[in-house]
Amino acid sequence: MLWQPGGPSHLDMWDMKPDAPVEYRGEFTSIPSDIPGYRVSELMPKLSQMCNKLAILRSVHHMMNEHSQATHTVLTGYAPVKGDPVQEAPSVGSIVGKELGWRAGLPGYIAVQQALEHGRSGYLGVANDPFETFGYPTSPSFRVRNLKAADGIKDERVTTRKKMLEKFDTVRRDADASGAIGAMDEFRRQAFELATSPQIQEAFDLNKESDKTRERFDKKSGSGQGALLARRLVERGARFVTVSMTFAKPWDSHQDNFTAHRQNVPGYDYTASALLEDLANRGLLESTLVIIGGEFGRTPRINDKAGRDHWASCYTTVLAGGGVKPGIILGSSDALAELPKDRPIFHQDIMATMYHLLGVDYTKSYLNEAGRPVQVLNYGKPIEEIL
Amino acid sequence: MHRMFLRSVLALLVGVALGTLAGTSKAAPLDFTNDVVPLLSKQGCNSGACHGKAIGQNGFKLSLFGFDPAFDYAALVHEGRGRRVSAAAPDDSLILLKAAGGMAHGGGLRFGTDSEPYKLLKQWIEQGAPWGEENAPRAVRLEVSPAEQNVEGKAEIPLKIIAHYSDSSTRDVTATARYDSQQPMMLEVTSSGLVRTSGQLGEGDIMIRYGDLVAVSRFTHSFGPELPNEAYASFQPKTFLDELVLAKWKKLHIAPSPACSDNEFLRRACLDVMGTLPTPQEVRDFLANTAPDKRDKLVEQILERPEYADYWAHRFAEILRVKTGDASFKDHTVKFHGWIRQSLAENKPYDQFVRQIITVTGKRADNPQMDWYRQAISNQVRVEDSAQAFLGLRVSCASCHNHPFENISQTDYWRFAAFFARVGSVTYGSVDEIKLDENGMVKHPRTDQPLKPRGIGAAYGTPEVEYVKGEDPRLKLADWMAAPDNPYFARAICNRVLGHYLDVGLIDPVDDMRATNPASNPELLDRLAKDFIEHKFNLKHLMKLVMTSRVYGLSSDPADANKLDTRNYARHYPRRLSPHVLMDAIDGATGVPTKFDDYPEIKRALLLPNEKGRSDFLDMFGRSSRDTPCECETRLAPNLSQVLYLLHAEEIQRKLVDKDGNCTKLAKSGKSSDEIVDEIFLRTFSRLPRPEEQAEAVSLLDTAMDKQPVIEDLLWTLMNSKEFLFSR
Q: Which portions of chain A are predicted below pLDDT 70?
């Protein structure tokens, strides 16, 4: 999941309105894409030629016009419940991680750098939080936080410590009916496996990529190198990986929307196209679902600070791979990109599509901590047209 | 053979019961609320997974478990273009066609056309789908027999359910009540109320629902054959707590582990009372003390230490949500936290403590506890926070619909809210002054009728309260809470305190008391509450009572006679140290305090007044964000990131090598290897090393050129060990 926190402007990227009045259409011109008749922003020269790999959903909408509530809705499928953590819904990644579990020694749900806002486990409990890498993937010395022993602790000392732990840590796991002692042992086993397995170290080691590949993902871009790390992890078995895609300016462009997008969209174009290209070249796109979007779009009418505000009533989300039919532009917006015109898509429909493609039963219920049964999704169904 | 016979007799009985019901109803018209709604509940039509959920199912919505019969009546009779019930052709009514398989139904076949529910519904439709008499008696209480039952092996036990009505009449509703097993591995229940036990050991409940009333029937299967008296010989009860726990063990055929060692007791007691490990000197002194009553004396001493108030202020600050949110409220929280700490230090009676929070009036400058109202900013939050924090009740579901698992109605919820109706002068974002709002009132959200205040628990005969001109009804709320016959208040705090010291409450979770979550030992909870009230809501008395019991002093090592026990205290249950306690323990063991860049004046995590104090460690180990009064917000479950942190974090390594830290000091101290090893064990496990541990560790030290790295490795090892990370 390539996440654009703050909300990108659909009108300046995927849903251009060149014929709209000047206070709507904005500064950018459109260019033709590889799908006849469909034009995208001039800022996306690379993606414009990859639309035949994408499903572009232009009529997505929900009810939340504030960042936190919208992000919560888009990442969990539920509106926030009055800030009540015992009823806090888990993020899609936590559910996928829980349902599909570890694979090839990698945790099911990994957040490159830090968990997205509302990207945590809610009532499923901290064991289902994402595994967060921390660190800066652009740094030559990038490494996952706490994955290996602290600096200055050499391998033989690690071995010594591990042996000492086996000798001195003798509390019986059957002493604890809650299972916390047993769980601690199990997590420690996993931790040592992560720390000592050369395969795992290799999975997180971006220096193993060729210079050409690193360059294709832009060596200087944290989002680009994050996307590359996500690709390495997915290639090795990770189930669900999130990357926050931010560039020079925040996506939340209440002022100078066009400056912000002029600075951001080229990086977005470069990063997203690199990921799609790379997955396709490796034959991984068929089996990898890529989700690109933010929590909402931006107001079609430009405000008096040349900015655009929050707009959840109609925006664009892009899917690719993982069984999604390529080359589809589904749904459209009205003349001003304010409301869906045909084939309105609830955000929960996208989530149902994701769960369906990942093989997770979204009608299943969990008990939340209030003892109330809550379905993975209580709304939405898979988008048949792109399956 | 025997089993089959029993089943057929029961089937016959049920048939007779229904026959009688249908027979009498021919003459008297059926009543929608009394006859039809229970049927909808029993068939699951109005459950949260089907038409009872907030958005209904395929356009047909019913109120959850039938809490709003008028709504359901309209949905069935008036909506759906009149097709749901068809008086002209009853068999063509959608409700019958869908439920009995005559039309496609997402919920599948609910009953056949020759079934009793079908006949009853059809009869009701034939009668013209009557609403019934406006003043018809309503069911107010369920009587379940057996309410409690001991079982051995596989058995079949029929339940009998009597509904009591508002006019004191009764009706056998066994056939029309709905049954759900809370422990399906142990208990199965048929739709006619026949319970089958699987032979699995332990305790389990059947939940019974009739209309919108709930009740439970509890089944207990002993954990093994009866134990000889010798199994209990070493356990000499000291207090009523011991007596009542022992009685439960005998019922379950389990026996206690032996008493824990002195150093285990000391570590446990210090962590539970003060959130702090004992110092090495305290361990040595306690072990050297030969007084027979030294454990009781210790409890008395540490309850008087300032760290008691520090630690329990931290715990209450989580329950009372001392939270800045916006950093500009830091001063509010520092003062509120200080008020809580001072209340605990002077051992303010608990009813006074709560009264002073709930009824606070005047200016915040004079009443720091007024900051409670800043988090509890709306009437709904006041209801939910005060119910959960002070009454042990989770009532939020009843704001929109009747509580599905407790006899708390939506009306009960809003009547409770009426206590807060006259809280006035609330400024936006902060609460700096509270005055009486003479005209404040609360209306029922569905009927729009003004409501008079009433404490929760109509079933206990809780009376309603009249508004008195010039008087704040919150005073009556505090009176009601502290009344000796209040069913919740004293029980809630006793359960919370017991749950803290014995790791699991009699009711678990500690703030979720309800008919369908009964106490594991109700007699003990009643007795504790009575004793607490008799001792004038004295918290330290309650804590002392628990901690000086034999039960509190049991070992956490399981014995054969109690290895299946998880709820009845036959051994002590270990608990991972909470985030702040663990941070302080690491800082204490390494001798290197953590610095909080937003709270530079704070030297111990437990002294942080609010949810702030920037720290990845505290977040990672599950610190509460204080968004609700729920103790569950502090997460004690381990995860991978925590384990990786303890093993590898630079922060830990820096504390180990710190030039002013304990490792460096020990390396330079000139102490012998034996003394060094003793010191490290005392600072982490709060005990001296066993001989084999001593030998192992000393040989590592003696063979090293440089002792410091070995000291670091040993401390690292012990801090990563479960004996350090858990209280046991």
A: 82-87, 177-178, 369-371
Please give the tally of structural domains in chain B. Answer: 4
Give the integer Cα–Cα distance in Å for B316 and B122. Answer: 57
pLDDT of residue B65: 86
**Is residue B719 domain-shared with residue B587, that is, in the same domain?**
yes
Cβ of B611: how many Cβ atoms within 10 Å?
Answer: 20
In the three-class reduction of DSSP (H, G, I as helix; E, B as strand; rest coil), residue B74 is classed as helix
Is A170 in contact with B512 (Cβ distance < 8 A)?
no
Whole-model pTM over 0.90: no
For chain A, how long is the longest CA-to-CA vector? 75
Handedness of CA B405, B410, B411, B414 (dihedral sign): positive
Q: Strand A2-3 relative to strand A240-244: parallel, antiparallel, unpaired?
A: parallel
Q: How many CB atoms lie within 10 A of CB A148?
A: 20
Q: Answer whether A84 sits within 8 Å of B693, measured CB to CB.
A: no
Asked whether residue B38 falls in the same domain as residue B160, the answer is no
Q: Residue B717: its chain A contacts at CB < 8 A? A: 161, 164-165, 167-169
Asked if the structure places residue B466 within a domain, the reply is: yes
Find chain A residues with C-beta within 8 A of B638's C-beta: 127, 180, 183-184, 187
The string of pLDDT tens digits covering residues B470-514 is 999 999 999 999 999 999 999 999 999 999 999 999 999 899 898
Question: Is residue A354 exposed (0-12), middle (13-18) or buried (19+ Cβ within 10 Å)?
Answer: buried
Place of tokens 């089907």: B50
> Could you write out the DSSP letters of every residue in A195-244?
HH-HHHHHHT-GGGS-HHHHHHT-TT-HHHHHHHHHHHHHHTT-SEEEEE
Q: Which of A129-138, B152-161, B425-434, B642-651 has the lowest mean pLDDT?
A: B425-434
Give the closest of B628, B641, B725 to A86, CB-based. Answer: B628
DSSP code of A64? -
Count Cα atoms within 13 angstroms, Cβ side, for B497. Answer: 25
Nearest to B574 among A146, A181, A369 (CB): A181
Give the domain ranges of chain A.
2-147+219-386, 148-203
| Mutation to test the A interface, candidates B47, B401, B502, B639, most A Cβ within 10 Å | B639
**Four-way CATH pick for A2-147+219-386: 2.60.40, 1.10.490, 1.10.287, 3.40.720:** 3.40.720
pLDDT at B605 over 50: yes
Nearest chain A residue to B619 by CA distance is A126
CB burial of residue B190 (10 Å; 0-12, 13-18, 19+): middle
Q: Closest residue of A to B559, CA-based?
A: A175
Nearest alpha carbon to residue A366 among A127, A123, A180:
A123
Whole-angstrom CA distances from A17 to A23, A261, A333, B689 are: 11, 16, 10, 76
Q: Choosing among A146, A156, A197, A376, which should be mutated to test the B contact, i.e. which has the most B CBs within 10 A?
A: A146
B chain contacts of residue A152, beta-carbon cutoff 8 Å: 653
Helices (H), B658-706: 662-668, 673-684, 691-702
CB contact under 8 A, B633 and A85: yes
Indicate yes or no: CB of A184 within 8 angstroms of CB of B643: yes
Report in angstroms the alpha-carbon separations of A299 from A275, A309, A374, B563.
29, 5, 33, 63
Residues 256-295 of B with CB under 8 A from A: none
Range of the domain at B646: 579-727
Question: Would you call B721 and A169 a contact, using CB atoms and an 8 Å cutoff?
Answer: yes
Residue B241: count of CB within 10 angstroms of its CB: 24
Domain shared by B119 and B42, yes or no: yes
Chain B residues touching A373 at Cβ < 8 A: 48-49
Q: B183, B202, B221: which is the final residue of a domain?
A: B221
